[in-house]
């Protein structure tokens, strides 16, 4: 199938900016945004809730210790994480909260599948690399919070500190981002006739004529 | 064609086209809708001037945010303003779109993953999605069922499809007789403990083998439900006579000759005897003891009579996480979980909120009062389940022993309503996630176990070994 013409502003080929590291394996979406903040019919205000509990003490006051609260990481757009990031609940509120905080690309050892899918739905990059490369990147952004990083989606590499490291972005995410077709609603709706044909052939779908 | 898995067959029959990025556009046979992940997609559809493409392929209910306390259940507007907004939005959206909605007053209301099987909307050979990660549950029927994000909910509403990547398939062969006192929950916790919480990333799990085949449908659902806790977005079991008999007579299931025809389709999607898997794993349950988690992920789990591992005895990569988890849960490495105090007992959820779960727990509850200072909540997974149990008098067994018998909903699994842990309470829970903060308090502690184990903990006021109770062969 031919790629449709996507507007230029939908294409995500590179993300450049400063970095922030959030360390730890298996950081679940309940950590990224606790369930009590999902009680809304809109997406407004989610940035306040990113890592809400992890950033606060017993009196619900910000401790200032979380990387998202450190003054040197304000404005960061590239998040560096470890293994199985975003596991658990399918809540799209999780990547949206990160996005609204300012994150446009996440580099990590691995991602939970639904979380990665949700990143793709938002035009956010989820790039994987090995534990050692992640560890070096995390240390680098902690020690050099003002240093610029670049995530090159098409070339699957991160450029920082005068060096290039390889990362991998799954082919389908990469193509969706680079072609600017990560919003699939119209794309799939356009195939309604073909969809009806498939539905008609299914023994359990009776209402499609 | 042979050598194909159920996953291959169902996928191929639902594939509409290959999208320009290489993903498949997959037709969705059943889309389950609830109030938390649907308001935004419906709004976005209106903004784009698009209607719902296949209204009859959608079934909605309300589960996450609703009160379960019978005293406030029927009060509208709901006391919680945000919850009321979400529920009202769902009522409005389903009515406008012509989508079946099992609302608060419906006798079919329930947790989406309990309701679907209740009404027979969950069937073999179908594709099922829901904006909820525990959609994997429906795989118990031989459906390809997976959780999706909210933008994907918009996709399904607008196009009847999702854009999906086909995964590898891992066959998990479970052998052995489940010993007395152990149930499906123990099997899936063992599997997650062995393969890890990210062991299933990139895989669809096909569960099979004699142990799985011997399970009733509700047990199979508990297994598939927690596939996602093992990292697998999809977990399924090939349909068989147990599946077909469960479905017979349910309202979404055809009758008579049409049932025979439908069964032929269901039979046709079973994995071929010579199906090729990308990976195969064997798990033996002979000698299995009841499982209980000691940490803050479902993979931090052990048999109830075995010592909690010391972090230094674990592989290096797991040590720091184990230390952090044990600081939070305050368990003692080297000692078993038996005797670890609890403040709250919770039975319910899409994992273990079905009739058989409460019947098994009732075998422990009957004649055994809840310990002083323990709050005990029994929350049926659906109104159908609740009614079934009340017809059998199971509600009275629980109430007599000091349990609160609630209306159906997700409740304390994720505490989006009033059912939440307070402060650093410790909860014996039949739910699926023991993440920090999951049950509504960031200092709360969750210990996952089977429903009967929760009942035993409620009696003792501490984690207990259900095998010490006389359950008369109920489990």
Tell me the distance between the termini of chain A: 26 Å
Number of domains of chain A: 1
- Major sheet details of chain A: 4 strands, antiparallel
Radius of gyration of chain B: 21 Å
Strand content of chain B: 15-25%
Overall mean confidence score, pLDDT of chain A: 95
Number of helices of chain B: 16
- Summarize the amount of helix of chain B as a percent range: 25-40%
Spatial order of strands in the largest sheet of chain B: 5-4-3-6-7
Low-confidence stretches of chain A: none
Number of domains of chain B: 3
- Assign the CATH superfamily of the largest domain in chain B: Aconitase, domain 3
- The overall strand count of chain A is 8
**CATH domain class name of chain A:** Alpha Beta
Secondary structure layout:
The complex is a heterodimer of chains A (209) and B (475).
Chain A: E1 14-17, E2 19-21, H1 29-32, E3 78-80, H2 93-101, E4 105-108, H3 113-121, E5 125-128, H4 131-143, E6 149-152, E7 157-160, E8 163-166, H5 171-179, H6 185-189, H7 192-200
Parallel strand pairs in A: 2-3, 3-4, 4-5
Antiparallel strand pairs in A: 1-6, 6-7, 7-8
Chain B: H1 6-14, E1 15-18, E2 24-27, E3 30-33, H2 39-48, E4 58-61, H3 81-97, E5 100-102, H4 112-119, E6 127-130, E7 144-147, H5 150-159, E8 161-164, E9 168-175, H6 184-195, E10 203-208, H7 210-213, H8 217-225, E11 234-237, H9 241-247, H10 256-268, E12 279-284, E13 291-293, E14 301-303, H11 316-329, E15 344-348, H12 349-352, H13 355-365, E16 375-379, H14 383-392, H15 394-400, E17 404-405, E18 426-429, E19 445-448, H16 451-460
Parallel strand pairs in B: 3-4, 3-6, 4-5, 6-7, 9-10, 9-12, 10-11, 15-16, 15-18, 16-17, 18-19
Antiparallel strand pairs in B: 1-2, 2-8, 13-14
Helix pairs in contact in B: 2-5, 6-8, 13-16
């Amino acid at each position: 199938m031919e790629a449709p013409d996507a507007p230029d502003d939908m294409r995500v080929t590179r993300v450049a900016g400063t970095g922030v590291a959030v360390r730890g394996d298996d950081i679940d979406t309940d950590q990224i945004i606790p369930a009590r903040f999902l009680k809304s019919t809109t997406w407004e205000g989610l940035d306040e809730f990113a890592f809400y509990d992890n950033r606060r003490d017993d009196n619900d006051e910000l401790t200032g210790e979380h990387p998202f609260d450190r003054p040197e990481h304000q404005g960061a757009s590239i998040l560096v994480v470890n293994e199985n990031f975003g596991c658990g609940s399918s809540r799209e509120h999780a990547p949206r909260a990160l996005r609204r905080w300012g994150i446009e690309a996440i580099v990590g050892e691995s991602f939970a599948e639904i979380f990665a899918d949700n990143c793709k739905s938002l035009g956010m990059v989820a790039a994987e690399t090995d534990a050692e490369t992640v560890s070096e990147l995390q240390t680098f952004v902690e020690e050099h919070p003002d240093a610029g990083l670049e995530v090159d989606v098409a070339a699957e590499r991160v450029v920082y500190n005068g060096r290039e490291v390889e990362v991998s972005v799954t082919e389908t995410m990469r193509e969706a981002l680079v072609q600017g077709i990560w919003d699939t609603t119209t794309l799939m709706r356009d195939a309604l006739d073909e969809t009806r044909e498939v539905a008609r052939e299914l023994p359990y779908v009776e209402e499609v004529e | 064609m042979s050598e194909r898995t159920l996953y291959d067959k169902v996928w191929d029959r639902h594939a509409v086209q290959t999208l320009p990025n290489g993903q498949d556009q997959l037709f969705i046979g059943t889309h389950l809708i609830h109030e938390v992940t649907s308001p935004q997609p419906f709004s976005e559809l209106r903004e784009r001037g698009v209607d719902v493409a296949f209204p009859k392929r959608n079934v909605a209910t309300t589960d996450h945010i609703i009160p379960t306390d019978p005293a406030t259940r029927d009060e509208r507007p709901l006391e919680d303003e945000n919850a009321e907004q979400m529920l009202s939005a769902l009522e409005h959206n389903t009515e406008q779109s012509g989508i079946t909605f099992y609302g608060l007053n419906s006798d079919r209301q329930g947790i989406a993953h309990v309701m679907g099987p209740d009404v027979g909307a969950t069937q073999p050979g179908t594709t099922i999605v829901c904006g909820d990660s525990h959609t994997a549950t429906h795989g118990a029927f031989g459906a390809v069922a997976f959780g999706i994000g909210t933008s994907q909910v918009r996709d399904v509403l607008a196009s009847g499809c999702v854009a999906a990547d086909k995964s590898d398939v891992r066959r998990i062969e479970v052998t052995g007789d489940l010993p007395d006192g152990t149930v499906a929950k123990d099997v899936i916790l063992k599997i997650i403990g062995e393969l890890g919480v990210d062991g299933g990333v990139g895989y669809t799990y096909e569960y099979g083998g004699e142990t799985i085949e011997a399970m009733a449908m509700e047990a199979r659902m508990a297994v598939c439900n927690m596939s996602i806790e093992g990292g697998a977005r999809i977990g399924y079991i090939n349909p068989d006579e147990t599946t077909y008999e469960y479905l017979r007579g349910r309202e979404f299931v055809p009758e008579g000759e049409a049932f025979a025809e439908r069964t032929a389709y269901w039979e046709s999607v079973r994995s071929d005897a010579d199906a090729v898997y990308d990976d195969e794993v064997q798990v033996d349950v002979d000698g299995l003891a009841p499982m209980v988690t000691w940490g803050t992920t479902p993979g931090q789990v052990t048999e109830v009579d075995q010592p909690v591992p010391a972090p230094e005895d674990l592989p290096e990569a797991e040590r720091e996480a184990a230390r952090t988890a044990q600081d939070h849960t305050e368990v003692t490495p080297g000692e078993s979980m038996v005797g670890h105090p609890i403040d709250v007992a919770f039975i319910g959820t899409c994992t273990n909120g079905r009739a058989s779960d409460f019947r098994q727990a009732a075998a422990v509850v009957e004649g055994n009062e809840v310990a002083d200072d323990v709050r005990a909540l029994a929350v049926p997974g659906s109104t159908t389940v609740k009614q079934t149990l009340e017809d059998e008098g199971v509600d009275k067994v629980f109430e007599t022993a000091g349990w609160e018998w609630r209306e159906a909903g997700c409740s304390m699994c994720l505490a989006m309503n009033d059912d939440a842990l307070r402060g650093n309470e410790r909860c014996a829970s039949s739910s699926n996630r023991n993440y920090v903060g999951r049950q509504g308090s960031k200092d709360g502690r969750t210990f996952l176990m089977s429903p009967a184990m929760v009942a035993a903990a409620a009696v003792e006021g501490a984690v207990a070994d259900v095998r010490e109770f006389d359950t008369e062969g109920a489990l």
